[in-house]
UniProtKB/TrEMBL annotation:
It comes from Aegilops tauschii subsp. strangulata. The lineage of its organism: Eukaryota, Viridiplantae, Streptophyta, Embryophyta, Tracheophyta. It comes from the Eukaryota. Gene3D superfamilies: B-lactam Antibiotic, Isopenicillin N Synthase, Chain. InterPro entries: IPNS-like_FE2OG_OXY, IPNS-like_sf, Iron_ascorbate_oxido_reductase, Oxoglu/Fe-dep_dioxygenase_dom. Residues 6-104 form the Fe2OG dioxygenase domain. This is Fe2OG dioxygenase domain-containing protein.
Length: 104
């Protein structure tokens, strides 16, 4: 985590290196969670594994797109908007073939 004592800015980077020993199996890289800050901006860099939870409780994979960003409402925005903006429950599954970086 990177933070500056003179600022309220914060950057968190999660690194998931390739895991070739998984050989087609999936491993939870970062379990079900919401993010603590105001928003999270994620980029897949062409790597799959991000899944989001729908209102009905089902999980959907977010297709990797190297040209797009995924903007996620986080916990602090929920508080500031008095629950008008709700955070998105999500998780990361690792498939072992490539590196995944999460920056929030």
């Amino acid at each position: 985590m990177v933070a500056d004592a003179e600022s309220d800015s914060m950057l968190r980077v999660n690194h998931y290196p390739p895991r070739p020993e998984l050989q087609g199996r999936l491993l939870t890289g970062f379990g079900e969670h919401t993010d603590p800050q105001v928003i999270s901006v994620l980029r897949s860099n062409g790597t799959s594994g991000l899944e989001i939870c729908a209102r009905d409780g089902s999980w959907a994979a977010v297709p990797p797109d190297p040209d797009s960003f995924f903007v996620n409402v986080a916990d602090a925005l929920q508080v500031r908007t008095r629950r008008a903006a709700l955070p998105l429950l999500h998780l990361l599954l690792l498939h072992g073939r490539s590196t995944f970086l999460s920056r929030t």
